[in-house]
Design brief:
- This protein is α/β, with parallel strands linked by helices.
- It has 16 helices and 15 strands.
- It has an eight-stranded mixed beta sheet, sandwiched between helices. It has a five-stranded mixed beta sheet with strand order 12-11-13-14-15, sandwiched between helices.
- Helix 5 packs parallel to helix 10.
- The protein is elongated.
- Bound molecules: histidyl-adenosine monophosphate.
- The site of histidyl-adenosine monophosphate has 27 residues, from strand 5, strand 9, strand 10 and helix 12.
- Histidyl-adenosine monophosphate (HAM) binds next to strand 5, strand 9, strand 10 and helix 12.
């Protein structure tokens, strides 16, 4: 009997880790530079956090949540988090962050879980980087999170991306529009597919981003949401655009962009790579001024975004962009005789304490195969500690680049190697 990883999950093997480290440290450094503080939340939350926050009628909540089996009848019901924003707002309320200077700028990194049909770029466990600015309605913040997303991708070398931007107003402004949209689609109900008929009844706004061809054709003459929005909402949208313009970030207004989570108000955006399908969106977000209140807090405006790490990696690979390598050992300590294993072990330990990254040979292999391994590891030096060396109080140092060897007194070896590596300029 053997086991495999669950469908839609990935083992991230050592060869893949440089991508992960690079993306994470780039985002973390940027978050610090923008004044966003790191925060973590639990992997699972009360189901209600997601039902109320994301919306009970959304695909995420209705079809994709990993529900945990309660141990007792009366127990609270939990689900693995399908996204971070709702849990972050729960934490904001629970910890009284409204009493801190506003806005509270938060950076979040971690795995999420959605029971989706797995395919390239769509996983059941995936990792997100989130940025959330809670407690201010200033349109500069909408632009700030968009600029952050754009600069993150830019910093990783991704090019030719498209920023899609829209405003969807707030629920009060939307209500009469949604009635008008229903009135427009009602005569065509029979022509809509099953999904869109459900949307018509439950969440007509989602008709705007339907993938169905007939629905899309009908949308050409459907009422325009922007025309239904009050001047203040349009002014907010204008301000966001003005900030994007001064940052030199190009955008395309897509009046059909509404996103799949119910909490959005006003600004929504997505960033897509060239030729991307539905699974291609690198990241997206928007304003969610009603979410904190929905979760039991005081009315609190907020805006944020999330990007999927796996999708960034797919795009880096598709563009032939490779991450900087992770630091590996600089020195390999070879062992050539049974009697020198302890001396070699002690030498490796001393090297590391002196700040030198050292890997010790194990397993009693021939010197030839140890040198081959050292070559593969890419170390600058191999230190050979054989019986002759041990007796003479020396070590033999092999410069792997030059292929030259020289003896060094054992008591000076660590300091000398550290000095040489320093001079050679570490990688
Ligand atoms: P979302 O659009 O559901 O938004 O997800 C954001 C990003 O997470 C996507 O663009 C994609 O890169 C990645 N992603 C989502 N689902 C999957 C999946 N099944 N497999 C791989 N990657 C995936 C949100 O989650 C909002 N919470 C974003 C937000 C933050 N809005 C405001 N603040």
């Amino acid at each position: 009997m053997t086991f495999t990883a669950p469908r839609g999950t990935n083992d991230v093997l050592p060869a893949e880790q440089p991508y992960w480290r690079w993306i994470r440290t780039t985002a973390e450094d940027m978050a610090a530079a923008y004044g966003y503080q790191p925060i973590d939340t639990p992997l699972f939350e009360d189901v209600g956090v997601f039902e109320r926050g994301i919306g009970a009628g959304t695909d995420i909540v209705e079809k994709e949540m990993f529900l945990l089996q309660p141990r007792r009848e009366e127990a609270r019901r939990f689900a693995l988090r399908p996204e971070a924003t709702a849990g972050l707002c729960r934490a904001y309320i629970e910890h009284g962050m409204a009493n801190l200077p506003q806005p509270v700028r938060l950076y979040w990194y971690g795995p999420n879980f959605r029971y989706e049909r797995p395919q390239a770029g769509r996983l059941r466990q995936f990792t997100q980087i989130n940025l959330e600015a809670i407690g201010s309605a200033d349109p500069a913040l909408d632009a700030e999170v968009i600029v952050f997303a754009w600069r993150l991708y830019e910093g990783l070398g991704l090019q030719n991306l498209t920023l899609l931007l829209n405003t969807i107003g707030d629920p009060a402004a939307r209500a009469p529009y949604l009635e008008a949209l229903r009135a427009y689609f009602r005569p065509y109900l029979d022509e809509l597919d099953e999904d869109d008929r459900v949307r018509f009844h439950k969440n007509p706004l989602r008709l705007l981003d339907s993938k169905n061809e007939r629905t899309r054709a009908l949308l050409a003459h459907a009422p325009d949401l922007h025309e239904a929005l009050p001047p203040a909402a349009l002014a907010h949208f204008e301000r966001v655009q003005a900030y994007l313009q001064v940052a030199g970030i190009p955008y395309t207004i897509d009046k059909h962009l509404v996103r799949g989570l119910d909490y959005y108000t006003h600004t929504v955006f997505e960033i897509v790579p060239p030729g991307a399908g539905a699974q291609g969106t690198l990241g997206g977000g928007g304003r969610y001024d009603g979410l904190i209140e929905l979760l039991g807090g005081k009315p609190t405006p907020a805006v944020g975004f999330a990007t999927g790490v796996e999708r960034i990696i797919l795009n880096l690979k598709a563009n032939g962009i490779t991450p900087p390598p992770l630091p590996g050992p600089e020195v390999f300590v070879a062992v050539t005789a049974e009697g020198t294993t302890e001396a070699a072990f002690a030498l490796a330990d001393e090297l590391r304490r002196a700040g030198v990254r050292a890997q010790l040979a194990v397993g009693g292999h021939s010197l030839k195969s140890q040198l081959r391994l050292a070559g593969r590891l890419g170390v600058r030096y191999t230190v050979i500690l054989g019986e002759d060396e041990l007796r003479g109080g020396t070590v033999t140092v092999r410069d792997m680049g030059r292929g030259e060897q020289q003896p060094l007194p054992r008591e000076q070896a660590v300091a000398e190697l550290a000095r040489w590596l320093q001079q050679a300029g570490r990688t």
